[in-house]
Amino acid sequence: MDTREKEIAKNPSDEICDLIKETVRDFAVLHLKPHTRTWDEQQHFPKELFKAMGDLGLMGMVIPESLGGAGLGYREYVTAIIELAKVDPSIALSMAAHNSLCTNHIYMFGNDEQKQKYLPGLASGTLVGAWGLTEPNTGSDAGNMRTVAVRDGNDWVINGSKNFITNGKSADVLVVITRSGEPGDKHGATAFVIDSNTPGFSAGRKEDKLGMRASETVELLFQDCRIPDSQRLGEIGDGFIQSLKILDGGRISIAALGVGTAWGAYEAALAYSKERKQFGKAICDFQAIAFKLADMYTDAQASSLLTFHAAALKDAGEKVTLASSVAKYHSSETAVRIANEAVQIFGGYGFVKDYPAEKFYRDSKLCTIGEGTSEIQKMVISKEILRN
């Protein structure tokens, strides 16, 4: 055992996180940074990139090695998302949706046959996953979804639509939550795993978005889509309850996305402030800029600590509803605030696409909306702290 291996043996999680941080940072600089502007302008989803990410173990990070995954925990997973988001938040978003939503739903609630069928391909990146809950008329009000699954013998027939679905057009495998009972009934929804080539299913138009443009956001359409009961995930009526558990972990992903976006904007602003000269000195030497940087750094550090705290609770098997909502709320709002300050530090150059500040500014806003708006997070937080 060499010195490095001995260090890892003494404190494996910290050392593995350091190795992941270094590896993903190098990968992002080499494979993401040269293409970020083109992908953004063209709204290009680089599906081939996800196979390369799978080769690094990034597409099934929390899936056991026996099912083709990396067998790591949420601390390591959060570390990877942060490093990707520092360079291109949209790629980190697609990676997070694949991991914590689609892949993790199958892992948590699928049977052995479903896990063996889908998880090795998803973990390797040869399959891309998507997860469908949101609908045109039911965003946060998911209990009143209109996508309906009706039992027909040993099959289910699905009709309806989903929207704002990350990875939806390029996905090979989709987990979809449908209504199988009465509207508003917590036990009236059922989850299914669906292959993208299933007759009756199609991906609709891709949204032309403000930010996160390299990450696909599309609608899913179901017209008499017939699937066998063997595609059902878990028990009939458990779909909504499953979704809440998945979103607890998913919010840690978005918290990490916010942290990475915040650090990316901060680091870009810091570097620029040292290079930009005004009145004979670097602008970072002016207190107005230095104090902005101090606030940005402090806020990013606070969000990082909250997010890694939630990840540690998740790894320990503890309830994470409160911690994940706190982390998601704080880090997403922080990302917007820091990205805004980065544009201000860049000045006129912060408003043009030749510099990174404007993209972080556009990308950051999604963090306050996806997987539960900031308002929903405050609702969850208040309910949790008033529960006892």
Q: State the end-to-end CA separation.
A: 50 Å
Q: Please state the overall shape, judged from the principal axes of the Cα atoms.
A: globular
Query: Strand pairing plus helix content: what structural class?
Result: alpha+beta
The percent range for helix content is 40-55%
Mean pLDDT: 94
Strand content: 15-25%
Succession of helices and strands: HHHHHHHEEEEEEEEHEEHHHH
Count of strand segments? 10
Low-confidence segments:
1-11
Q: With helices defined by DSSP (H or I, 4 residues minimum), what is the helix count? A: 12
As a whole number of angstroms, the C-alpha radius of gyration is 21 Å
**Arrangement of strands in the largest sheet:** 1-4-5-8
Largest sheet: 4 strands, mixed
Fold and architecture overview:
The protein has 388 residues and is an alpha+beta fold. The chain has twelve helices and ten strands. The strands form three sheets. The chain has a four-stranded mixed beta sheet with strand order 1-4-5-8, covered by helices on one side. Helix 8 (239-275) packs parallel to helix 10 (321-346). The radius of gyration is 21 Å and the shape is globular. The relative contact order is 0.11.
